[in-house]
Amino acid sequence: MKKISLIFILILMICFVLSCGKNHEEYKIETEKREACSGNLRDIGNAIYSYELSNNKLPENLEILIEQHHLKSLPVCPISGEAYVYEKKSASYKVLCPNPEKHVGLL
Ligand SMILES: [Zn+2]
């Protein structure tokens, strides 16, 4: 009887270790995607800055950045594949990830 429960505990421990390894791998992939997402936000920010320098105003939308060759293509968030949100106010702007809540562990 004791042997059986020992084996059972051993199996549980192995499962625990295996699941930790898997979570670590997922976490690593998640981190890479998150870094790619911030890289995309940085690229868009640089393109907006470059547009502003040439046009003396903020772009009306992100598409114009491509038309004027400040950006090769519009990146999407690597986690959801959705486009970034551009919010323009009179003298400032925001570029937001469409779903920061999907970035596990972000902030
Ligand atoms: Zn994102």
Keywords:
binds zinc ion, mainly alpha, 55% helix, 107 residues, two-stranded antiparallel ribbon
Explain this structure:
The protein is mainly α and 107 residues long. The protein has one domain. 55% of the residues lie in helices and 7% in strands. It has a two-stranded antiparallel sheet. A hairpin with a 4-residue loop joins strand 1 and strand 2 (93-96). The longest helix is centred in the N-terminal third of the chain and has 54 residues, at 2-55. The relative contact order is 0.13.
Summarize the structure.
The chain is built from two helices and two strands. The protein has helices at 2-55, 63-67, and strands at 85-88, 93-96.
Give the domain tally: 1
The profile of the biggest β sheet is: 2 strands, antiparallel
Helix content: 55-70%
Structural class: mainly alpha
Order of helical and strand elements: HHEE
Number of helices: 2
- Quick one: how many beta strands? 2
What is the element layout, followed by pairings?
Blueprint (H helix, E strand, L loop, with lengths): L1 H54 L7 H5 L17 E4 L4 E4 L11
Antiparallel strand pairs: 1-2
The structure holds zinc ion.
Zinc ion (ZN) binds next to loops.
